[in-house]
Design goal:
This protein is an alpha/beta fold. Helices cover about 40% and strands about 25% of the residues. It has 18 helices and 18 strands. Strands 12-11-13-14-10-15-18 form a seven-stranded mixed beta sheet, with helices on both faces. It has a six-stranded antiparallel beta sheet with strand order 6-5-4-9-8-7. It is globular and about 85 Å long.
């Protein structure tokens, strides 16, 4: 049994969440107690609460009694002030380390963070969360207690606790309320100790549909047309963290049907989709993208998704599959849609093969959304007008009477002015004219020129249009497109 007195649940928490300790691991709750309050108790104090539902009137009575008893205990124990140093706590026992980590995980999940960083320096350890693609400082830990934190993470991730000289990778699976979290752990030895980065994946999160990703109506229609093709190669390009996997999953969700055999090979499998066979790459047993893709083609697939085309072998098999009656979806790391052609040719694929197999390329970036709670509009400065004109010189935009928007910062967005992210993209559909260009001159600038003539809207223009509509800011578009 846990002694509640040692747990010391804050009175403010009890009142706000209507959850009251009785004894041991037993608690009173009401119909208004949020589900996460019970999880907070479990995570922060290492106990599994047993709850008893009572009416609000009864809760008020019990709370008054609890406060009265609390005041009596304070008087009995005296008023001597005691201060607990986090450094001493961490050195004292394992339990506070567990509480500290559980609290950190809980905060990260609540904040919708995608990564948690533990970064040791000479005198302290900085804890940062990546939220909406940007790192924010959340906490500082004393240096002396940090080894205990790293050891606890390694134990949870089933890593070698004794090995501090080599990088290690592992995985933690936890459940918070109804959320199943998959945490990918990476440790890296540095001068001041081991650096730990934890990537958070919410397994219970609903996969977004294409219409929920923020594409303009025009681009959404183009993407739907591309993935409805019976065969061919469709690529999604962009740097790491630009939402490529999310777009592929949304496309598979759109394509899923009892009449279609869909198989994927990924590294790693981030989200599981019912009705689709998904394969995890495993280089240790020689299950590479290329080898896995060869085996998939013997499984009579209609649609194949390859997590990433990394080498010539994978590219050639994917192209061969796309030319023999399969729809192949994959990703590449390129700056824009036309560059995907050049990238494949640079890998060693013949231009005529690229031209005949490629149906379309979607290049994208993620930009932060302006917080709707503190959004304001403002007049464009001459400098901003000049920036926009320079960025869109290939596709001029009329700025007369247009305004820009920004978030001033509030509690809802943690004073950042942003909340959530949205995709900006360019969709290059490959028609007969473009196939002819790719076969003869696969240079990206020539391909881009013809794609623009055929109606492609660039990443920059899509971003500027979203900024003028008050969805994101000009700064975000500039940062994302690096113009």
């Amino acid at each position: 049994m846990i002694n509640i007195k040692t747990v010391e649940i804050p009175l403010e928490f009890i009142k706000k969440n209507q959850i009251l300790p009785i004894e041991g691991n037993k608690f009173y709750i009401t119909k208004n107690t949020p589900f996460y309050a019970v999880e907070d108790i479990r995570f922060l104090y290492g106990i599994t609460p047993e709850t008893e539902l009572i009416s609000e009137e009864q809760f008020k009575e019990k709370l008054e009694e609890y406060i009265s008893n609390l005041e009596s205990k304070i008087e009995e124990e005296g008023t001597e002030e005691t201060t607990e140093n986090l450094e001493d706590i961490l050195e004292g026992s394992d339990a506070p380390v567990i509480q500290l980590l559980n609290s950190t995980f809980l905060k990260a999940v609540r904040a919708n963070a995608s990564d948690i960083h533990f970064e040791p320096f000479s005198d302290y350890v900085e804890v940062r969360f990546r939220m909406d693609g940007v790192l924010h400082e959340m906490n500082r830990l004393p240096k002396s207690g940090y080894p205990a934190v790293v050891s606890r993470i390694k134990v949870m991730a089933k890593l070698n606790v004794a090995e501090k000289r080599l990088p290690q990778d592992g995985r933690i699976r936890i459940k918070i309320g109804n959320k199943e979290m998959d945490m990918r752990v990476s440790t890296l030895p540095t001068v001041f100790g081991e650096r730990v980065v934890i990537r958070l994946l919410d397994k219970s999160t609903k996969i977004l549909s294409l219409s929920e990703l923020g594409y303009s109506d025009e681009d959404l229609e183009k993407i739907k047309n591309l993935i409805s093709k019976p065969y061919g190669l469709i690529l999604v390009t962009g740097p790491t963290g630009s939402g490529k996997s999310t777009t592929l999953y949304a496309s598979l969700l759109q394509l899923k049907s009892p009449r279609k055999n869909i198989i994927t090979i990924e590294d790693p499998v981030e989200y599981q989709i019912d009705g689709i066979s998904q394969i995890q790459v495993n280089p240790k047993i020689n299950l590479t993208f290329a080898n896995g893709l060869r085996s998939i083609l013997r499984q009579d697939p209609d649609i194949v998704m390859v997590g990433e085309i990394r080498d010539l072998e994978t590219a050639e098999i994917a192209i061969h599959a796309s030319m023999t009656g399969h729809l192949v979806l994959s990703t590449l790391h390129t700056n824009d849609a036309p560059s995907a052609v050049t990238r494949l040719v640079d890998m060693g694929v013949e231009p005529f093969l690229v031209a005949s197999s490629l149906e379309g390329v979607v290049a994208q970036r993620l930009v932060r959304r302006i917080c709707q709670n503190c959004k304001i509009e403002y007049e464009m400065s001459d400098v901003e007008k000049a920036q926009i004109s320079k960025m869109t010189h290939l596709e001029p935009i009329n700025l007369e009477g247009k305004k820009l928007f920004k978030g001033v910062g509030c509690e809802e967005c943690m004073n950042t002015g942003y909340k959530g992210r949205i995709a900006i993209c360019e969709v290059m559909e490959v028609n007969e004219d473009l196939r002819s260009v790719i076969s003869k001159s696969p240079e990206s600038n020539i391909v881009k020129q013809h794609a623009l003539e055929n109606g492609m809207k660039t990443l920059v223009k899509d971003g500027i249009e979203k900024a003028l509509k008050g969805i994101t800011t000009l700064e975000e578009v500039i940062q994302a497109t690096k113009v």
